[in-house]
Write the C-alpha cells for this entry.
Amino acid sequence: MSTVCIKIDGKNFTVEKGSTILNACKSAGINIPTLCYLKDVSEEGVCGVCVVEVKGAKTLQRSCITEVKDGMEIFTNTPTVREARKMNLELALAHHNIECPTCERDGNCELQDIADRVNVKTVHFADVPSFYEKDVYSPVIRDPSKCIFCERCISVCDNIQSVSALAISQRGIRTYIGAPFTHLLTDTPCVNCGQCIMNCPTGALTERDDTNKVWDALSDPDKYVVVSTAPSIRASVGEIFGLPAGTFVRGKVATALKMMGFKKVFDTNFSADLTILEETHELIERIKKEENLPIMTSCCPAWIKFLEEYYPEFIQNVSSAKSPQGMMGAIVKSYFSQQISISPDKIFHVSIMPCTAKKSEAERRETWLRDFPDVDAVITTREFGRMIKQGGIDFVNLPDSEYDNPLGNYSGAGTIFGVTGGVMEAALRTAYDLFTGKELKNIEFKPLRNFEGIRVADVEIDGLNVRIAVANTLGKARELLEAIKSGKERIHFMEVMACPGGCIGEGGQLIPTNSDIISKRAQALYSDDERSKVRKSYQNPQINELYKNFLEKPGSEIAHKLLHTHYIKRHLWEKIGKSDF
Amino acid sequence: MICNADEGDPGAYMNRNEMESDPHMVIEGMIIGAYAIGANEGYIYIRAEYPLAIERLDRAISDARAYGLLGNNILGTDFSFDIHIARGAGAFVCGEETALIASMEGNTGRPRKRPPFPSQKGLWGKPTNINNVETWCNVASIIKNGADWFTRIGTEKSKGTKVFSLVGKVKRTGLVEVPLGTPVKTIVYDIGGGATDNKKVKAVQTGGPSGGCIPDSLFDTQVDYEHLADAGSIMGSGGIVVMDEDTCMVDTAKYFLEFAVEESCGKCTPCREGTYQMHRILEKITEGKGTNEDIVLLEKLANIIKLTALCRLGQTAPNPVLTTLRYFKDEYLAHVEDKRCPARVCRSLINYYIDPAACRGCTICSRNCPVEAIDGKPGYIHIIDQNKCIKCGTCMEVCNFSAIVKLSGESIDTPFAPIPINKGR
C-alpha cells in the first residue's frame, strides 16, 4: 500500500494513496457531513455539503470525490467551510417539503440528521414549491416535493440493479428525478425492488402504505383475516423497536399479530417448503430430460419482472412454481378455505414481506385462482412496524406464541429462503435426497453462504455434476445471464434475488440496511435453521400431510393448477413514446 | 479531438463568423493538432442553431476529403484523420467540456466531476483534446508565421489576439479583433465610437451572461485573462456589452442571472438552488421590497456559489451580481433604502407623470393608453391615474411635446382633475 503525507487542520497524517479527502478525514477522526455520497454507488458530488478548504485551490473542494495528494493541506472547519455547508443545506431545505411530523422518514432522515450536524436552525431562503405531482401509482411512491436531487436512486437503479427506470428530466430549478420525461414509474421497467427507497436520504421515496387496508379488513366482521409472514421478518422487525440487528423475534411477531386480531397466523416458511418440493420436482425432471436449463428460481418478483422485460428469451427457464407468497395465497384460498368451510372471498389474506415488489406480485392476475386476489394485502416490514406502534403494542416485552396450524410449521430449509443462496441450499437438500434416494448428510452448503454478487459451484449428485449459480442484485443477475448467453457459463440451476443479501436486504426492510446489518440478519436465519429438528423441506410433516390430503404429489394436476404460474414477455418503454424524445 | 463550437452566449457570434466565413481555417487547425498529438478522430460540436455554419463546415469537410486532406493516409503519409459534425441542442452548459462530451455520448448534457480530465478520460472514455473554434483558427497562422510572431502580440501572460463581440449601447457594434491587453476604453470609444445618442457610457459587461460588469472608472483595465479576473470578470465567451446611463445595474444583474437560472443543468445544489434564490432576492429588490439583510444574504450566497458550484457555469454565474455589488452598491442601496431606481428602469419603482406646464391637451396619450389610466379632454391638462397606470411607457413614446416625465423616488405637482390649459398657466 503506497501512502501520501497530508495535513488535516494543521496536523500531519499519512493516508493511503488514492483515498478521498472524506475517507482520509474519517481516519483522522473527522466525520465530514455528506448528503449525496454513497460509497461505490453514487459518487457525483452534487450536494455541495462535504466541501473543505484545500490550500492553493481557488474553490472549495468536495471531499467525497477529491483524492488526496502528497503534501495536501486540508482545512475542514473554517468559517468559509461552515458557511458553505450551512448555505448549501439551507438551499436544499428551501426546496424541500418540510413536513417532518407526518413524514415517513421522520427521525430516520439523513437530511434531518445533516441539518442537525451542520447546525442549521433557520432557512434564510424563500420556499421553492415542487413543480411536480406525487407519483403514486406503483408500490414505490415518489414524492418530488421531498427530493433533494442527490441522484442516489438513479445510481442504485442504474449501477446496482441495471434496471435504469429512473432518470433526470428537465433542468435547473425544474429538474425532475423519477421516471424519464416526467412520466409515471408504472410506465418504466421499474421492478419495484425498492432499493431506491433504501438509499433515499429523505422521504422522497417510500412504499405504498397499505396498512389501512389491513386495519379495515380486521375491523370488518364479514372478513376472516389471516396473515402469513416471510422468513426474514422474524430477523428484522425487532430493529424497529430498538432490538439489536438480527434479533430473532418469531414468537413476538405471532403474539403481536394475534393481538391485532388476525384469526390465523401462518408462516410463509411453510409455503417456502412447498415451493421447494414443486421446484425440485421440476429441476429433477428438467435435468433428466436436459431441457430448459438452467432452471431459474421464481420466488423473487423483482427478478421475475426484470427477466420478463430484459431477458424474455429465458422465460421458459424460470421455474413455473409460484413464489412462497403466491403458494400460501393459493393454499389459503383453497385447502384452508375448505377446511374451515368459509368461502374464499370471505377470507382476507395479508402477507407481511420485507419487499415492495411483493405488492405488485400479489396484483398479477395470472397468479389468481379466481377473479379476486389470493393475497389481499401485502405490507412491508416497515408498515408492519408502524401497525405494531399504532396498535399500542409493547413489542419488546411481548411473550412468545406459536404460529397456527395447518400452515405454520417449517423446516430449516424454509427459513433460509430469506438469505441469498438460501433457496438454492434448500432446494439442494431436497433434490439430493429425492434424486439419489440417499440421505444427504452434510447439508450446509458453505460455498453459498456469503454475499458475493455471483457464486458458482459444482455439486455432485449421484455421479452427476450439477453446476449451480447464485446471484444477488439484478446487476449481477444480468452479468450471469450474459455469461450464460455467450456460452461462457453452463449452469444447471440458478438462484436470483434482486436485493443485496437477498430478502434480508430488501426494499421493504428497515432503513438503514447495510452490509453489517444484513449479515446479522442472515446469521439469525442460519441459527434458526440449525435449531430446526427438520431441516429438509420434503421432511416437513405438515407438507406431507398437505400432499396426502389435497395436492396428491409434487407436479400433480391439482398442484399445477394451484401452485404454478406462467410469465409474460414485457415490452420495455412501450408507454413512453417517441413523442417524448 | 473535439472542436468546441457550442457558442452558447446569445450575444456572441465570433465562432459562428469564423465557421461561416472560413471553415477551412478551423479544419486546417484541427488537422495540424491531430497530427501533433496523434489523434485519428475529430468532432466539431456545434449548436444546431447555426445551420449556415454547419452547411459550410460540411462542404469544407467533404472538400478536404476530396483533396485527400482528411481521411486515410493524408497526403500519402501514414497519418489518418477525419472530422465529423456533432450537433448540440443549444444548452448553454454544453459548452462546458465534460457536459459537451456527455451530450455527444447521447447522455443528458451535464458536467461531471474532474478529474478525470478529458485529456485522461474523455469522449467514450478515450483521452480527448478539446479546444474552442478560435483556438483552432489560430493554429495554422502560428505554424506558418512561427511562435515568436504570435507571442509578440498580446501581453506577458495572455498572448495573441482575441475576437470580441461588441454589442449594446455603442455606436459601432460588431466583431472586433484586438491584441490581448488592449484597454477597455480603446474598444469602447476608439473602435465602438462611444455610446449612442450622446449618452454617457456607464459600464461594460464582458464574457457573456456569467461575466462581470466593469465600471467606466476602470476603463483603463487591459482586456486580458489576468486583468479581467482582477476586476471580477472573465474573458468567457468574448462578448462585450456596453451599457449607458439609462441602465439599472441591479436590473442588469437580474437579467444576466435569469439566464443562469434558465441554463443551470440542475446537477449541483449551489447552482440549481442558489442561482434561483439569488434571482428571487434580486426580484425582491427591483420590486422595492428588498431589505439591507437581503443585500448581505445575496452577497454571501453569491460567494458560496462561486466557491462550491461543480462547474464553471455555476462558479461564474454570480459574477454579474458580485461585480455590480462591488462597483454599483449605491444603486442597490437606492432600491432598498430609498425605494428608488436611479436609472428609472425598475417598473415597480418608477412613476409616469404629465408635466402640467408642458401638456398641450392633445389627447394622444389618453387615446393610446392601453388601460385608460389617463384622464383629460382636448385643451385640458391630462392626468395619469397612478393606481391604474401599468407603467408601460406608451404615453411617453407617443407624446409629441415631451410632456411625460418618468420619475423614481420623487413626484411632481399635478392637478387633481383635468383643468383647461389656459387656467393652468
